[in-house]
Amino acid sequence: MTSSDTASAPAAPRPGGRGPLAGVKVLDLSRILAGPTATQLLGDLGADVVKIERPGSGDDTRGWGPPFLRDADGNETRESAYYLSSNRNKRSLAVDLSSEEGIALVRRLARRADVLVENFKVGDLARRGLGYEALSAENPGLVYCSISGFGQDGPYAHRAGYDFLIQGMGGLMSLTGRPDAEGGEPTKAGVGIADVMCGMYASNAILAALHHRSATGEGQHLDIALFDTQVAWLINQGVACLTDGNVPPRRGNAHPTIVPYNAYPARDGSFILAVGNDAQFARFCEVAGKPELARDPRFARNADRVRNRIELEPEVERLTVTRDRADWIAALEAVGVPCGPINDVGEVFADPQAVHRGMRIEMEHPLGPDGHVALIGNPLKLSRTPVTYRRAPPRLGEGGGEALAEWLREDDNGIRALAESGAIVLAETE
């Protein structure tokens, strides 16, 4: 029996409790995906996140559907799946930033915040008196994170940045898709990965800045650009180009520097074979009934296999097509050769490993068909301070009054006065 046989399931994140960022106040002026991804991660780690939204419409992604969450009667609600994906553990405050009263309210909230995240056009918030210089003068410890398409300076700083555009300009699409010889063309990833990765870099930068502040008391301005982060995570492909001057081609599912590492045809479909070293290749050849292939000098070492991939790949395909996928996976797993199925998204959430690791969660939501909404779990597993799932993605304005009472000590009369001035719009439940 192996250690994995006796290992218990990871502890489920508590619906309440205190995470490692408990007590950190985050003022979230971001929308779409990069900023909300960063702030949701901070919220999962325990931060108190107040999301500032436009009255009436809210975050743009609220309307990015279908699909939309359906209520108990099967009717579509205003909550899109896209919005739900990155906005849990937040409270929503609908603020009119075109009004002096709304701007003044955000300035008051910023004085109480530890972190502010925004993705307005470069210079837009500064013109409203909500830029870093103005707010840090009132709150020197503020960590102010600006997320933009191309950064706060440079020849493209004025341009809007969207995930698809950044995947193209940042080189990812040139690496994704079938090769030209197979009729392929540059292809974007199937999810907004440039946005998501930018949000991950932003959250890292925020945590580093909070650590610096704990030592010095100093806040700072973080300038995080989708374009920069996309270029950064070209990783090995980018450095390969810098090393030899050759532009990496599209290879479909193949790996640029490991062979065989691809999706291969079995008798009943395709499966993934990911041979990472020479010993694994020799074991694959044994299972395939052709051990002499691993002794062929053209294929004995990985560097040789890469140089001779055109000769080797057809040989591998001739072998893999003789058995069913399940047979290959069972036989190769038994000898430690990495392989696996190509799951669709529905199969992913039904996979025993995903279930065991808590990657599908349910949270209470008043508009859900059974009073709940299904979401993707946080992948971070912290032994002493686990992530917490405290609040479902809020309806527009939900929790805003409560946040004002907690952050600014506003009483009911003060909150009503703000609503009557037009600075805020309260949710129907408040």
TrEMBL record:
Residues 1-20 are annotated as: Disordered. Residues 1-15 have a biased composition (Low complexity). Keywords: Transferase. GO terms for molecular function: CoA-transferase activity. InterPro entries: CoA-transferase_III_domain, CoA-Trfase_fam_III, CoA-Trfase_III_dom3_sf, CoA-Trfase_III_dom_1_sf. This is Crotonobetainyl-CoA:carnitine CoA-transferase CaiB. The lineage of its organism: Bacteria, Pseudomonadati, Pseudomonadota, Alphaproteobacteria, Hyphomicrobiales.
